[in-house]
Every structure is written in C-alpha cells, then in structure tokens.
Amino acid sequence: RGKEEKYKVRMPKLRMVKEYVDKRKSINDVDRNVFKFKKSSEEKSKKMDKEEKLFRETFMYRKEIRVLATATAERSVPSARRADLPLTAGEQLDVIEAVQGHAAICRNAQGRYGYVLVEHLNFR
Fold first, then answer.
1. Is residue 43 a part of any domain in this protein?
2. Which of 3, 9, 66, 111 would be 48's cystine partner, CB 3.0–4.6 Å?
3. For the Helically-extended SH3 domain, which residue ranges apply (predicted)?
C-alpha cells in the first residue's frame, strides 16, 4: 500500500463556470425527456385506440365521440358488470353520452369506457 500511495498522481479538479454546468445539465435532461415522452405517448395512443374499438363494439356506438361534460367521482365503486366502469373517489371522468335512466356513458383518464350511475358523479 505504501508504494501505491507514494506514486499516486493527484490531478487537480478543473473548475467550470456554474452557468455552463447548469446549461449542460438542462440540455441533457431535455434530450432524455423527449425520448421517454415519445415512447410513452405512442404506447398510450395505441392503448386508447384499442379501448375505443372495444367500446364501439360493446356499446354499438357509431356516432362521433364527443365529451358533453366533465365530472368527478364522489365515491369508489367496483364494477358489477363488464359494461360498468369501476370508479375511484375523486377520479375525473368525461361524460360521453347521457343514457335514458340513471346512467351515463363515461371515459376515465386511462381511456376505459363504461356505464356510471349519475348519483355517483359530481358535476361542477
């Protein structure tokens, strides 16, 4: 050990201007975020298309999908049927169509569609 420490050469730290270091870090972060964003958005769009296709087949919905209103789920409700949309309290939902009776067709943030009882929704 003594010989290794004796011949060890210590290099001085090169000092950089702080602004340059910050700028370099921000440029590198932006490049990384751009690539991650593209990948996740492609996956998300494929999943949304798949969910929309499943929705159109299940509900026999041929019209254009338009959001009539936005609502918040008041309480968590599990789905009893496949056509029902499971809810979590505070979740934001897009109301697609108000069906006769006490139900509405809604879409959640993940792109899933289903029936939701109007009594579980809070319209603001």
1. no
2. 111
3. 55-121
